[in-house]
Prior knowledge:
By secondary structure, the chain is mostly beta strands. The protein is built from no helices and 35 strands. The N and C termini lie far apart (61 Å).
Amino acid sequence: MWRRFLGAAAVVLLLGTAFMALPAQAQNGVPWTGQYYNNPTLSDPVALHRTDNTIAFNWGLGSPDAGVNADFFSVRWAQDVQLQAGTYRFFALADDNIRVTFNFHQTLIDTFATGQVGQLMTADVNVPASGSYHIQVDYREETGEAYAFVSYANAATNPQPNFNPPLPNPQLTNPWTVQYFSNTTMTGDPTAILSVSTPNHNWGTGQPVGSVPADNWSARFTSVQNLAAGTYTASLRMDDGARLFVNGQLLINQFGPATGQTYSATFTLPAGANTFQIDFVEFGGDAYLEFTLTQSGQIVPTPVPTLSGINVFSTATVTAYRLNIRSAPDPQAQIITRVNRNETYPVTGRSADGRWFQLLVNNQLGWGSGAFLFVPNEALVPVVDAPAPNPQPTTPPSTSFIVTASPFTVNIRSGPGTEYNRIGQIPAGRTAAVVGRNSNATWWNINYNGIVGWVVAEYAAIQAGANINAIPITG
């Protein structure tokens, strides 16, 4: 009987082998709403709607649920979460593809088009003010292995992923011996003994072999597999019941009527030969057995490129309504961005006179006046060399045209493309002077309160009647 529920069995510590229950803690205490589709395009109808505490799934070669395909499926998770102002770091790892969107329109991570399968991706986002924010994660599985992991935290805490990504699934190359019994208790002599390549079968409503009835039968699968030492997770999904022994230890015991759940156990194995035994029982109706084994391991996350070799010594909270972040500890140095009251950023150093602090803002190092920053334990922050103040660059001449951020706040970037660093924002409804454009007018080169950069035309509407050809191509 195909059912649409997932579960995890609690596993106890047994002799000689360590076991742990699978984690089930919601990110920031807020669960994710998940919509699962039996296609890779997130197209209706929804095959499964459920609440997931975390996005930390390793389905291996299986599927998320009995009602969802093992291949060519997709998932959309969403949550609305309360965040304090500051910079947040996101981590994502998936096979095949994953996309993380912040507050409906800001794409932080997207491997749908790049094909970066199995790579740990990171991205930072600035939260301008404390409040409620919407986070959406889209996932796509085509064929083969399937897993999805996402976590995030305030960058001031120097976060790491809160998941253990999977190592390549162990190869169970040795054959299995299966003994079929014409009863549900595996008593007496087996009516058939066969060698099979895997214990995974979907018998439907028919007989497993000719000498065994279609209902009220049982089977025992055994195999010895040569594996590397490490931590493994085994899962069973079945109709009706099954139990799993590893090296003689009973790990999963659901030898009864079907519950529609997937049962998992996490344990450690020594290197070399390890014995697996799966007992299966069928009472009536559909009959299937799915067994997966995955190995977990720690990996070192790929750092955000601009953070290489940078140490964080404290945090700084902005006390001014709005504070300029400059290229050097000098009030005449170039403004590279602006930050807002109550936002918190990592501190990487201070000036020799102690009047300026070097901050990490949106993956850029810049200097903020200590008069408008609260920095705990500032005496522990080391003095760092500062570049000589650069002369203020000449501001490009503005045209007579303006653009308006609509309908959302729009990011200002250092170049005409989302791959360029964000250097500021234009709040929704505010205007900026146009100084240029790219060749196809999909990006505007603008000057907003002294910040010269680029905004995407889709969210920065130019005034009605503007002669695009009169705007010089500047990038």
